[in-house]
Amino acid sequence: MNNRQKTGLAIIIAGLLVIAAIIYFIFMRPVEQLEPIAPVDVPSGQLPGEPEESDLTPGNTPRRNTYDLSSETPHETNATDVAKLASIIAERLGSFSNQSNYSNFEDLNIFMTTTMRDWAKTYVEKMRTDNPYEGNYYGISTFSVNTSVKSFDNNNGNAEVVVGTLRRETKVDGSESEFNQDLRLVFVKEGDRWLVDGAYWLK
């Protein structure tokens, strides 16, 4: 056997040894067994680590504050509340358009007395007749600026509030104008609710 053959044979043997080592470490080496973890037996309805009985004595048991709503004094609507209501009503009552078919008045029905609802119904019918929507928009946007309580009598159930407003009118020809106008609102108390019984735009 010449040197070339000896060298080739040595290379083959070395390759076989490497392959054998790889096979041994991957497939034949025993795997270290891990000890199984013992399952934790948790009683039903109890969180892990939670003692079955509290180890707190009555003296160091934390107090839980409870709030009794029945002890709270019921809030009685006052002049400030009526003024806020007047501000909201003024904006809604003074903002309307022929495109929305003057539905804002109907949205306010729950805040009106029967007399006021009857007036609003008649007024809306007139507005729909005088300014029907035929593709040309007409509307007014109203914003409350300030309120002034002129009178408030909770015992007799009547109040009067004047709301200062800023109004923006858009006419059918597209022209716009802006002006200030006060709205006087008359309220009456029915049960525990304050309702609008009259609305008057002041010049």
From TrEMBL:
Residues 57-76 have a biased composition (Polar residues). The chain crosses the membrane at residues 7-27. Keywords: Membrane, Transmembrane, Transmembrane helix. Residues 42-76 are annotated as: Disordered. This is Uncharacterized protein.
